[in-house]
Write a structure and sequence with these properties.
By secondary structure, this protein is mainly α. The protein has a single domain, classed as Four Helix Bundle (Hemerythrin (Met), subunit A), CATH 1.20.120. Helix content is 62%, strand content 4%. The protein contains 7 helices and 2 strands. Helix 2 packs parallel to helix 5, helix 5 runs antiparallel to helix 6 and helix 6 runs antiparallel to helix 7. The relative contact order is 0.21.
Length: 195
């Protein structure tokens, strides 16, 4: 008995377009990074968390893909959830990286002139970028018909994300002290008013 349901070509097309948007934003941010800015603190330990997040993405997406035949009205309707989730995730990622500006980076670090970002999506949750990435993992898994894979992928993603957050928050506490403590008491990590 197969563990995967048929993929949805409409949803997959929408999610892949959103994924290209994600990739373009990351590339743009990396290319516009000011290389002359000196790094105050960097922790390469966050690379392990990134690797776990990448493994979770691979787990969520792995498996054969088959589509149930020609695109039907039902495909268009069922594409709504993953396509909307992907679009909201890209929007949240764009809003977050624009709000962070020069403070954004792939690996955990603070830099000279680093500011504690508390506005935009960071006024709602402390880690909106990880929430956005999680949304994309789920959207692509659903579009491929691999939603059952999330049973294994979600715990791995959460462990990798918590690993990274622990390192990032330590750097922010060292840099901003009481201001970061006040911010972290006021704003939840991932889910507003919950967690």
């Amino acid at each position: 008995m197969p563990f995967h349901t048929p993929g949805n070509m409409v949803a997959l097309s929408a999610v892949l377009l959103c994924g290209m948007g994600f990739a373009a934003m990351v590339l743009r941010m990396r290319m516009s990074a000011d290389g002359s800015t000196t790094t105050a603190r960097r922790d390469v330990g966050s690379t392990f968390g990134m690797a776990l997040q990448g493994l979770a993405m691979g787990l969520a997406w792995m498996g054969g893909v088959h589509f149930g035949g020609p695109v039907s009205r039902a495909d268009w309707i069922s594409a709504g959830v993953p396509a909307t989730l992907a679009a909201l995730s890209v929007g949240l990622f764009a809003w977050s990286t624009a709000t962070m500006g020069a403070n954004w980076s792939l690996a955990a670090r603070t830099r000279a002139g680093h500011t504690l970002v508390q506005d935009g999506p960071f006024a709602i949750v402390r880690n909106p970028i990880y929430v956005a990435l999680f949304g994309m993992v789920c959207a692509l898994s659903m579009a491929l018909g691999h939603a059952i894979n999330l049973i294994a992928a979600v715990p791995v993603y959460v462990i990798g994300t918590l690993w990274r957050v622990r390192i990032e928050e330590r750097l922010l506490r060292e840099t901003f002290g009481q201001a970061y403590e006040d911010y972290s008491r006021r704003v939840k990590c991932f889910i507003p008013m919950v967690w």
